[in-house]
Design goal:
Oligomer: single chain
Radius of gyration: 14 Å
Order of helices and strands: HHH
Shape: extended
Largest sheet: none
Low-confidence stretches: none
Number of strands: 0
Structural class: mainly alpha
Length: 56
């Protein structure tokens, strides 16, 4: 993998992490508490494709 491809991958991961964090942070306080984390993981890991798309 060259530097350009690695940078593109890093940018994509960073962008997706921001969306995932916003999806988990239900009360928009800038922190994901334990309940938000558990709920978010539950939806993400066991939810339907449609629910996961909404989350992201």
């Amino acid at each position: 993998m060259n530097r350009k491809k690695l940078q593109k991958l890093t940018d994509t991961l960073t962008k997706n992490c921001k969306h995932l964090f916003r999806g988990f942070d239900k009360d928009n306080d800038g922190c994901v508490n334990v309940l938000e984390w558990i709920h978010g993981l539950s939806l993400f890991l066991r939810g339907s494709l449609e629910k996961n798309e909404i989350l992201l």
